[in-house]
Amino acid sequence: MVVGANIFMKLLVLEQNELVSNIYKKIFDKKQYIADYAKNESECLEKFDENYDYVVLENSKLGNLEEEIRKIKPSQKILSLSPFMRSDSPPELKETQDLIEKPFAILTLFGKLEIENKYV
Asked: What share of the chain is helix, strand, coil (3-state, %, to 5)?
């Protein structure tokens, strides 16, 4: 939903580091994003529903989490904050999966979230 210059998005963020989660929370709150946070893969799946604009995965060893999310919602947009995109991801998943290489500037993250969401 776009209201004036603000974009309201609902995010699910997987971040194991509590300090980093708190930083994301402060930044996302200022941008008026609605964000839920998970500390591990199990908690992420428990919190996942079909109403998230993005699932932001901050981890390079995600196992089968993307596949589990896609079983629930195949078209879910996933943004991986990782040094690499999983090489075993099928080409059709790469259409809804995006990558920001670490380290990154927070403006890069906002750019991906806001530009992609304008066309949804």
From this structure: 40, 25, 40
Q: What is the pLDDT of residues 4-18, one digit of tens each?
A: 444 578 999 999 889
Tens digit of each residue's pLDDT (9 = 90 or more) over 102-118: 545 565 666 666 655 55
DSSP 101: P
Q: What would the two tokens of residue 70 be?
A: 């896609």
Q: Contacts by 46-52 with C-beta closer than 8 Å and gap 24+?
A: 47/12, 48/12, 48/72, 50/76, 51/10, 52/10, 52/11, 52/12, 52/76
Give all domains of the chain, ordered by start, each with its CATH number: 7-118 (3.40.50.2300)
